[in-house]
Amino acid sequence: MLQKAKKILKTVFGYDSFRPLQNDIIENILNKKDSLVIMPTGGGKSLCYQIPAIVFKGLTVVISPLISLMKDQAEQLRQLGVETAILNSSISASVYRDNYNAVKTGKAKLLYIAPESIFKDEIQELLISSKLECITIDEAHCISEWGHDFRKEYRMLGQLQDKFPTAVFVALTATATPKVQDDIVINLKLRNASRFLASFDRENLFLQVIPKQKAQQQALEFLKAHKDQSGIIYCTTRKQVDELYESLSALKYSCLPYHAGLPDEERHSNQERFIRDEIQIIIATVAFGMGINKSNIRYVLHYDLPKSIESYYQEIGRAGRDGLRADCLLLFGYGDSMKIQYFIEQKTTQQERLNAQIHLDEIIKFAQFGGCRRVPIINYFGEKYHTDNCGMCDNCVDDAATLVDITIPTQKILSAVKRTGERFGLTYIIDVLTGSESQRILSNRHHTLSVYGIEKSFTKKQLQYLCFDLIAKGFLEKDEEFGGLRLTSKSNEVLYSNLKVMGKIQEPEISTKKGKLLDTNYNKELFELLRAKRKQVADRLDVPPFVIFSDKTLQQMAVYFPRTDAEMADISGVGTAKLKSYSSSFLPVINKFLNTNKTVSPPAVSVSPAIPKTVKTAQKLRYIEVGEEVNNGATVDDLVLKYGIKPETVIAYIYKYAIEGNELQTNSLESNLTVEAELLAKVFEEFKKDDYLFLKPLYDKFEGKISYEQLRIIRILSIVKYGTKS
Ligand code: ADP
Ligand code: MG
Ligand code: ZN
Hints:
Elements: H1 2-13, H2 22-30, E1 35-38, H3 45-55, E2 59-63, H4 67-79, E3 84-87, H5 93-104, E4 110-113, H6 121-129, E5 132-137, H7 152-155, H8 158-163, E6 168-173, H9 178-187, E7 194-197, E8 205-211, H10 215-224, E9 230-234, H11 238-250, E10 255-258, H12 264-275, E11 281-284, E12 297-302, H13 309-316, E13 326-332, H14 334-346, H15 350-368, H16 374-380, H17 394-397, E14 404-405, H18 407-419, H19 426-434, H20 439-443, H21 460-473, E15 476-478, E16 485-487, H22 489-496, E17 502-503, H23 524-541, H24 551-560, H25 565-569, H26 576-596, H27 622-631, H28 636-643, H29 647-659, H30 667-670, H31 677-689, H32 696-701, H33 708-722
Parallel strand pairs: 1-6, 1-7, 2-4, 2-5, 3-4, 5-6, 8-13, 9-11, 9-12, 10-11, 12-13
Antiparallel strand pairs: 14-17, 15-16
The structure holds adenosine-5'-diphosphate, magnesium ion and zinc ion.
The site of magnesium ion (MG) has 3 residues, from α3.
């Protein structure tokens, strides 16, 4: 049966392989065993019940909390050629009747329905008369009061088990807390349910946090790098949403607001226009997002601090569902936490306040964290995170991100603030520290202070950045009204208890062109033509563009330039039904493009994970220096000494150097191998088959007998020997 599932994956969905756990889950459901599926947003939960639904002879009922969500999902399935019915209040009487009959006659494989409708007499009769094989509860966390979207109607669903004991039950959610999971199992009365917990790492999301300075300017810079792309900007308050919307629309950005204060109709229409690619940017409070299936959201910008790690992850999780790179930027201002603090204090019970406080502290810690951003997140979801350089977060890719001891300059800045009476703004403080002879300083007699002119090693710009960083870290506080800097309770620990402060001295750039998964290798011009065609087709059918083809599928077309039906069928995301419906619309676009651009040829490399060529050129990057040193015979130990960095970092640099296709002399590296020859040969065999961008599977395969460090070295040697596969 699993064979059949695999075949459906290709012919119906057009995908070549299952994502982790999908096949296990499908097998379990096909064996009629209740299943609880926990996967992050965008992880690919739908396929887990949709494929069994196609395999089963009878009906699969899908309960889903939102009408918009149901509509999109049903539409996506119809586009794939799967008979799908939907019964709710949003459809006209005649469509309702058609859908009803499709279920009644056994034509429909899936029925999407709202939780409150399922107990209606008419529906119950319909279900009893159908051969009901599977009941799926999507967004199953809605059943739990511990979750964030509790729905009363979901509580009733426990009765289904008694009414339809022969159907297999499948519950799906992206909520990871064990308490919620237990609630789901108990309330739905799942029988011996297997729990499938997928990794919460979303490898295609680039994570970055920068200190919030001039937020709007920073936002504009970020948006500039995402021209013509879909994205979400999250703000904490409605007021902030409205203000930012005013500014951005005045600058002619294609954007609309979304928050609970807007009339229902307007809110709904704004969401719909975003989903249909009619506007690019939605500026929203957290009210936006639940049930957004749009797969081509390329970025999420947090203009303010989210209230917890869980909300942050859920919000950024809406980006990059198609698996392509998406950029997530958080502007972190310590002052923003005060806003959240205010909300916390409004909460009624002590317990609620306490919980919210813990969440806030965690997200602040995350924002200030100097290591790989994935570590605190993935740990939060109860997983261990293994890779020591994820290649997809600011701290892992940025040379400037290296943390250094900034205790001394911090002490100087804090003393200057204190000595001048905690009244002056940032520029003034920096002027004092650098010994400016401005009239204001002289007339305040601040040139007589001991801190006057004591800062010699940093530029004004660096000092400015340091101050922002200290504000973000809570060592300084800015008067909202007058801009004066004040000390905080944390400042004393630095001034009097010698608390060590770590930070960056160089202002981080907004990274949209760093890390893995850069989208440079497809033909941009053709992609735009295909996108325009997709919009045209979608409008004609009155459906959102992403249900026709995902961005990823269009990009693949702009890489491989399929000219015939057969070639088109090889593109990921093109199944039999879509081939039939759309090849006649899309193939002419490609053929015409090739005829008018006779010189273009498909790019040599594929769009799959590739580490980019360096972006910075002016100053030689550290890893290039390291690579060149290795070529001149330097050993890992030499480089550890020379640069004062850890051996892991040296090896990571060499890896980066090699994977970019630079020639590498491996003699000195080979001397670091400790794995015995026979085992070594086996590892090489593995690398011949796969690049192992992530080493964990390999580590497990050899049962931990080979250390990660050794695996990393062998991986570099394999790249040199066999090249990369992707
Ligand atoms: P979730 O419900 O877990 O948030 P979805 O089921 O909406 O996620 O899936 C997210 C995206 O991933 C969809 O565009 C889907 O088509 C795609 N997808 C799912 N499984 C695969 C797969 N095996 N190969 C390629 N793409 C997949
Ligand atoms: Mg889903
Ligand atoms: Zn990282």
